[in-house]
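Run log // design_07
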């Protein structure tokens, strides 16, 4: 009698059948996407309204955002219920009180020095020269932050030190962003001579400020201290007013006339970046057309 061996049969395991997605779960995903789109559109609508003078009609807003009029109207109605927009008697919509409160909270929480410090460090690294931050107080430029370069010969200023507006890079950058009347008031206090290069007449200062506006940055060519050259640009607030200024400063042996244009562009872009980060207005600045002192 023979014994026939048997090979164990292979067990084939089939993956469990996939359960169809729950209609509720699928609906939640679509609902979330819809909420995200509505939020994005609502924020874009608020930004569009904020950029207008006196508000805008439903038709204008819908066209500006490429939205169907019914969709724009639903968004406006929702924002109105929350107090972020309000309808005027003339059919124009405008930003509401609640949106103003949110914006005011940002203004009260922003920190000029905290925003400027990383930009000062970056400026110093890119230029290899000392970078400064100054503000205006009682008609003078006050230095409030600095990133010193690593060169043996370098510009160094004690924080809290003051400088005249008409004879410093940071001062002239802020003067150039003032109204004509404000610049004239500064000049009326007297243009004290500090070096042979100091601008001591209203005509000379007015011409220099006009050149500053055209370039987008100011130049202190040994006007504050012999042997020191500086380029500076203004930081503007939410009203387009001069708030502060960034500068690069160093000895004339390194800050040669050939380097001034490149360094000026660096400080101009850094100041513009700081203005935007702080919620400032980078265009339509008041006083930029004035040329006399």
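design_07 sequence
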């Amino acid at each position: 009698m023979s014994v026939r061996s048997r090979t164990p049969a292979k067990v084939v395991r089939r993956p469990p059948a996939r359960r169809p997605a729950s209609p509720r779960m699928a609906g939640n995903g679509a609902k979330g996407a819809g909420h995200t789109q509505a939020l994005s559109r609502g924020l874009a609508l608020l930004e569009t309204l904020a950029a207008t003078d006196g508000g805008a009609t439903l038709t204008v807003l819908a066209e500006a955002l490429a939205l169907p009029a019914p969709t724009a109207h639903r968004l406006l109605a929702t924002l109105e219920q929350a107090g972020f927009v309000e309808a005027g008697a003339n059919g124009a919509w405008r930003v509401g009180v609640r949106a103003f409160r949110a914006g005011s909270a940002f203004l009260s929480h922003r920190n000029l020095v905290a925003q400027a410090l990383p930009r000062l460090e970056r400026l110093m690294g890119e230029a290899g020269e000392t970078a400064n931050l100054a503000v205006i107080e009682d008609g003078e430029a006050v230095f409030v932050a600095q990133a010193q370069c690593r060169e043996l010969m370098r510009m160094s200023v004690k924080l809290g030190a003051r400088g005249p507006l008409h004879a410093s890079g940071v001062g002239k950058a802020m003067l150039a962003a003032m109204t004509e009347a404000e610049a004239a008031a500064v000049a009326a206090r007297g243009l004290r001579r500090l070096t042979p290069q100091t601008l001591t007449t209203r005509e000379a200062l007015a011409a220099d400020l006009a050149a500053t506006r055209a370039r987008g940055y100011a130049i202190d060519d040994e006007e504050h201290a012999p042997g020191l050259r500086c380029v500076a640009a203004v930081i503007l607030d939410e009203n387009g007013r001069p708030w502060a200024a960034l500068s690069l400063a160093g000895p004339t042996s390194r800050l040669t006339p050939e380097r001034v244009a490149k360094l000026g562009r660096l400080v101009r872009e850094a100041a513009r970046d700081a203005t935007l980060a702080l919620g400032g207005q980078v265009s339509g600045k008041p006083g930029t057309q004035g040329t006399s002192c």
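The chain has two domains: 36-106, 110-277.
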